[in-house]
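for the writeup, i need someone to sanity check this before i put it in the appendix. the sequnce is what the collaborator sent (i think, or maybe the updated version? ugh). structure was predicted straight from it, no edits. if anything looks off just tell me and ill rerun, i have time this weekend
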Amino acid sequence: KRNRPMDEKTHKDDLLEAVEENQNEIHKSKEAWYRRRQSLGICKHKKELLANSQ
């Protein structure tokens, strides 16, 4: 199962619990997902593909 940012539509209970425990919890999960995506080079790879296709 992939770690993705919390979405209030699909994870209402989890989101509420995170907000009650710590206001920064949601931000931290999004930030961790973004860092993971960055470390995998996903955005970089897409840019290289676009540059090569032009």
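The chain has one domain: 12-53. Residues 12-53 form one domain.
thx in advance!!
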